[in-house]
Design brief:
Elements: E1 20-26, E2 29-36, E3 42-46, E4 56-62, E5 68-84, E6 90-104, E7 112-113
Antiparallel strand pairs: 1-2, 1-4, 2-3, 3-6, 4-5, 5-6, 6-7
Protein name: PilZ domain-containing protein
Organism: Archangium lansingense
Pfam families: PilZ
């Protein structure tokens, strides 16, 4: 019997597993998406928009009470999913993994950069 390989969990940060409506600002304009699996390092966004790897996007979280938070993110990966629906038809979804690069503290001030190691893949 072969020894079991030890699996190291890369996710060291607490994750906030709640669904948020978010707004994506790109060079192509403004679009909407669904933010999921949010941590201090990044998030996954379901979106219909095509975003290129390495592209920088501004992500704005809008609270129900009118509060907003904006961060600058970098596209790290893309996902296209096909799944079976309850009615038997095929469903499709796409999304992107975003790495948070900086936070916007105030609109009239520069972004607050996030200090972290550069990960090379």
């Amino acid at each position: 019997m072969a020894p079991q390989a030890q699996v190291r969990e890369r996710r060291t940060h607490l994750r906030f597993d709640k669904v948020f409506t978010i707004y994506l600002s790109t060079e192509g304009g403004l679009s909407r998406g669904i933010g999921r699996n949010i941590s201090a390092q990044g998030l996954f966004v379901e979106t219909r928009e095509h975003l290129s790897l390495g592209e920088r996007v501004k992500v704005t979280f809008a609270g129900e009470d009118g509060t907003e938070m904006t961060c600058l993110c970098e596209v790290r990966y893309q996902v296209a999913l096909a799944y079976g629906r309850k009615d038997g038809r095929e469903g499709n979804s796409r999304g992107v993994g975003l790495r948070i690069v900086a936070y916007e503290v105030q609109e009239d001030q520069p972004l607050l950069l996030v200090a972290r190691e550069r990960v090379m893949h």
